Recover the amino acids of this structure.
């Protein structure tokens, strides 16, 4: 039946195999959908963040990671999503240099504040990020 099918299922990396761009995108996507919706302002904040962290990034590759992140996160219940975010953050700590880690705090705050509403679920990810990445994130609540 599928002999002539050209559908290829996109393979989403396990957090332990993610690139830096991929891991940051998955973290930002988790913040975006924490309040059950992704706003235009939040996507713009993500684009700004990856441009600052990875000036040489490929837009097509970033968009692919963005779509994959939303796909994988939307299929997880809250408990599994938390475990997944934890793994993504640990991967980021492993891959990002100290300058990138220090600059990511304000970028995380920007995406949390982007839609004008700071949700408890977003703040839970902020606290987890602070603990795992050993950074301070100042969010105007």
């Amino acid at each position: 039946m599928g002999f002539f099918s050209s559908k290829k299922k996109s393979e989403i990396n396990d957090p332990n195999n993610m690139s830096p761009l991929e891991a940051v995108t998955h973290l930002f996507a988790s913040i975006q959908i924490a309040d059950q919706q992704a706003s235009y302002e939040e996507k713009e904040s993500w684009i700004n963040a990856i441009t600052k962290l990875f000036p040489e990034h490929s837009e097509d590759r970033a968009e692919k990671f963005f779509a994959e992140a939303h796909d994988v996160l939307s299929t997880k219940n809250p408990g599994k999503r938390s475990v997944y975010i934890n793994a993504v953050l640990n991967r980021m700590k492993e891959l990002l240099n100290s300058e990138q880690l220090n600059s990511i705090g304000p970028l995380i705050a920007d995406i949390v504040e982007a839609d004008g509403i700071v949700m408890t679920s977003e703040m839970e990810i902020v606290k987890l990020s602070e603990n795992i990445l050993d950074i301070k994130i100042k969010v105007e609540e």
